[in-house]
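Lab notebook: predicted structure, single chain.

Context: the supervisor wants predicted structures on file for every construct in the current expression panel, including those that have not yet been purified. This is the next one on the list. No modifications to the sequence; it matches the entry in the shared construct table.
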Amino acid sequence: MNPKPWQPPLAAVVLCFLALSVPAADTTLTFYGWSDQHVTTEGKADHLLPAIDAMNTLAGTPYPDHISGKVDPPAFVFGCGDISEWPTNAAKDAYNDAITKRLKIPAYDIIGNHDEGGKSPSQTVKKWIIQRHRSLSYTFDQSGVRFIAVFSPYDETLDNPAQAIHKDALAFIRDQLAKTPKNQPVVIALHQCLDSITNRDELVAAFKGANVILVLGGHYHKATVGEYGGFRFLQLPSPQSTTQFTVIRITPTRLTAIPYNYKTKHWIDDSKVILDTGLPQITNNK
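Prediction complete. Output recorded below exactly as produced.
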């Protein structure tokens, strides 16, 4: 009579499954953020190259003492829109070359108001985004964090840089958050920054019940940090107007974001533009 094959105890199976399905406790995600690159209609993108070269080499640089540690190799670079002054093929091609040939890190982007073409609409950059990311609004997961990249159509007839997040964009956010595990950390990316959003209450209401740890934006070109409705907002700097990009680090217990000046090779030390907070989200999100 053949003996029964050995089977591990049920508890051991469960522990093995959990070890495979739950991110390691020391998982750290580092990525870089920038926005409003504004490649010219003629395709002039020289002003991006110093930023890209710094992104390629910043890993290993010590953080300021109050943050501690060194910059880990970044998983990707995220751009919050306005890659072009106006969406010509020359602008699109120059930016594409910059992030696929010069940049040595994966890159994600969304559409800004300039990329739509303003009062002379163009589909050029929109088609490029769809080709790269399958859709104008899309999601991806990295190191246990879900990123929701959102296209919000811009209304040029308002003649105002401050606008509401479009109803279709809000619907996309709600739909994607409904598909996301309640405890999974989420980063929302928009082109508009906190100061330019006129329907903030409606926006944060769309986050209800989800673990939204950060909202990225651009549009106003300068690095800033804000909070609204208990949610953290991070405005990313423009290489057209500054010589900075932001380094974001997410661990299971801490979220930091600090701009780096790639011209002077120094960290920005202004507390108004630095985010350093504990996780999970500390506010009531019911």
